[in-house]
Amino acid sequence: MRNIITVAIDAAREAGTFLRESHHTSLTVETKEDRSLVTNVDREAERIIVSRIEAAFPSHDIIAEERGQTSRGSDHCWVIDPMDGTHNYIRGMGIYGVSIGVIQRGSFVAGAIFIPETDEMYGAEQGAGSFRNGNRIHVSRRSDLSACTMAFDSELRQETPRKLRVLGELCPRIFNIRLFGSTARNLSHIAEGVLDGVIEFSDKLWDFAAGAVIVTEAGGRMRRFDGAALTPGDTAYIASNGLVHESLERIANSA
User: How many Å apart are CA 108 and CA 209, to the nearest integer?
Assistant: First the structure.
């Protein structure tokens, strides 16, 4: 597994460095069917990552946001978001990241998240803990929901009434809330204790595959709304420090 996480970290750093260096260059922007945006820079970052993975593990499966799935019948599947937070990037905001997760026989086993603008590299392997720039990280120890800082699903234009009902239940019970527009940023912040939790309704696998390992290996919890274990086929989840998880479940299911 060590070689896998090394490749993930190296690929995330190379792609993220390219993104940072290209941040203020001319972009070609396209709108996809789901109204999300993709740029020429996303596609080049993805090419960088895929080429590194295929050079090291030519028999492994790959799911990449822009190019789709390459199935080779492997037990290992790499899940790539070359730029999580594309909308932020296009608007000149530095809240974006590269996310590379590895799934083995349906389990999240390794992940790397790189936040280029702040040079933060998060990595985790199943059973080995979570790290930021080589230093061990842990989720927060806040157990009082009223002291917690939360993140929330930023796609408020989708399922708007339901999300606003949950948000209305959540806000009076917590200290404050943030909408970063990047799952990579949300989950890395939970893993290091900057945030205490997040409620997401409609993420894609490439958004959270890396963060699922990083959060759980930092001592946190990441589950479906019904409390069941998160699987690669899920889209809605709660991620937290574990101590406030049941409270967030009740709120998420209240609407």
Answer: 7
